[in-house]
Write a structure and sequence with these properties.
mainly alpha; 2 strands; 63% helix; 4% strand; elongated
């Protein structure tokens, strides 16, 4: 079965951005790429001339693969990646610090026995001060060690 999707050029541009961002998440930090995502990405990129996106991709002569141009990567996708990285950095750090704080107050088996809404409330209460600190001061007042 083959699927058909009709998109306006602007919708196609958004699809390209989504595919790029999705593959960046899946393959961006791997040593060995998951090629099934690369194949789908290439199929989407190959439609670029039909959507008047000629400068958005560059052809690698050796591999025959299309890659986003620098101009493409410096646009909306770079902003989205930067915003995502900024958010996840502070959220993950606050979550890990909250886990440490909660571990001081509750043995893991006791915390697991709490109702889900109580665990979520306690987690939020433990993470909130860290999130507020990071929002106000970033990493400026982080101290490592005693």
């Amino acid at each position: 079965m083959k699927l058909r999707l009709e998109l306006e050029p602007e919708e196609y541009r958004r699809l390209v951005e989504l595919v790029y961002l999705g593959n960046w998440i899946v393959n961006g930090i791997k040593e060995e790429r998951d090629e099934k995502y690369d194949r789908v990405e290439q199929k989407v990129y190959q439609l670029a001339p039909d959507a008047e996106m000629e400068g958005a991709f560059e052809l690698d002569e050796e591999s025959g693969q299309l890659f986003p141009s620098d101009a493409f990567e410096e646009g909306n996708v770079a902003e989205a990646i930067d915003a995502y990285d900024e958010y996840t950095l502070w959220q993950e750090l606050a979550d890990r610090l909250a886990r440490i704080e909660l571990g001081k107050r509750f043995p893991p088996e006791d915390f697991a026995k709490l109702a889900e809404e109580d665990r979520e409330r306690l987690w939020d209460e433990a993470a909130r001060p860290f999130l507020e600190e990071f929002e106000t001061h970033g990493a400026a007042r982080l101290k490592i060690g005693g």
